Amino acid sequence: MNHSHHRPMCLFGLLLALVFVPMAKAQITGVVSSDVEAYFGSMSDTFQLTEGPTFPFWTANANGPYPVTGPTVPALYAGYPNPSLTFTPNITYDTGHIGPGFADSQLTTANYSIIGNFAGGANTGDAYAQTFGPPISLFQPASATGFAFEKVQFVMTFSVGPSGIAGGAAPAYPFLATGNVLPGGYAQFGANVDYWWIPVIPGTIIPSGPSVNLGTLQYNFFQAGGGSFNTVVNHSPTTLAGASGVGFLQITGEMFVAGDPFSINVVSIPETSTLVLSVVGMIGLAGFGLRKKLHRA
Questions:
Q1: Is the pLDDT assigned to residue 220 strictly greater than 90?
Q2: DSSP helix/strand/coil, 96
Q3: What is the Rg, in whole angstroms, of the alpha carbon atoms belonging to the chain?
Q4: What's the CA gap between 164 and 272, in Å, rounded?
Q5: To which H or E segment does residue 118 belong?
């Protein structure tokens, strides 16, 4: 039997295994708690929905574009987005959470998925928040009146061992924004992700000093006028600070999509995956060229 057609798949599996092998020595020791809340507004905020616990109507937002923090919605917990070890988790998202889906009477629809976890764990940048599976999405038909937005707020807390955590490169999780804007409209995606260090007395959750911001990652995409788009959105800056001692690494953040009238989908694309796919693609093209030469010979 000829097994040559299996070689590309075997090579692809080998590349994936090499890229995604976790670090053996990790200072992040686990996920302590997490929470996520989504907010949906359309028709100039006269229509609003959230996930439970249901919040009362919030102050109406003007039409965008918005700053990187997005439209104003109720805080996830008192003091948010500052770090806290005392919030009550509502919906765990470290194993992945898909939103319930939002819709209004004008056929505007929205949904999202969020996952936060850590790979390896020796560096601040090994902890991350990203979309997964279904992307963050928002669709508004041409017949809809007014703008629409969807905003997701999240928090995740990681325990860190006595050796602390090293600074370095920020997580390699850019986003891919795709969609379409109708003439005269706009589409926007923004994210603001804060990394916090909370030092504690060993064996407790009692802070031993003030919380420290290790860095803030920002993503910003804006498409004005009519037409389709397919854009990779990277964060800035590219590095995060580290910390020493026992404590907690906490990520607080928000992502949003907004526009009028438009459709947009936003999903994470790990750079390592992109590299692997590029390599496999080049191998495939080389093989295709070789087959053409052999066929001509």
A1: yes
A2: coil
A3: 22
A4: 26
A5: strand 113-118
Q: How far apart are CA 288 and CA 291, in angstroms?
A: 5
User: pLDDT tens, 222-259?
Assistant: 999 889 999 999 999 999 999 999 999 999 999 999 99
Query: What is the distance between the alpha carbons of residues 95 and 91, in angstroms, rounded to a whole number?
Result: 10
Provide the residue type at 4 as one letter.
Answer: S
Q: Could you give the 3-state DSSP secondary structure of residue 20? A: coil
Contact 125, 169 (CB under 8 A): yes
Q: CB atoms < 10 A from the CB of 31, how many?
A: 18
* Alpha helix stretches (DSSP H) within the chain: 7-19, 271-296
Contact between 226 and 98 under an 8 Å Cβ cutoff? The reply is: no
Express each pLDDT in 87-141 by its tens digit: 888 888 887 888 889 999 889 999 999 988 888 789 999 999 888 878 999 999 8
On whether the CB atoms of residues 110 and 137 are closer than 8 A, the answer is: yes
Closest CA to 252 of 194, 198, 211, 197: 194
In the chain, how long is the greatest CA-to-CA distance?
Answer: 75
Amino acid at 222: F
Q: Residue 65 and residue 193: Cα distance in Å, rounded?
A: 19
In the structure encoding, which two tokens stand for residue 219, read together? 């993503």
Domain boundaries, the chain: 25-290
Encoded tokens for 190? 């923004």
Report d(CA 36, CA 34) in Å as an integer: 7
The answer to whether 28 and 126 are in contact (CB under 8 A) is: yes
Which pair of structure tokens corresponds to residue 200? 């504690």
Output helix, strand, coil percentages for the chain, rounded to the nearest 5. Answer: 15, 45, 40
Structure confidence at residue 273 as a pLDDT band (50, 70, 90): very low
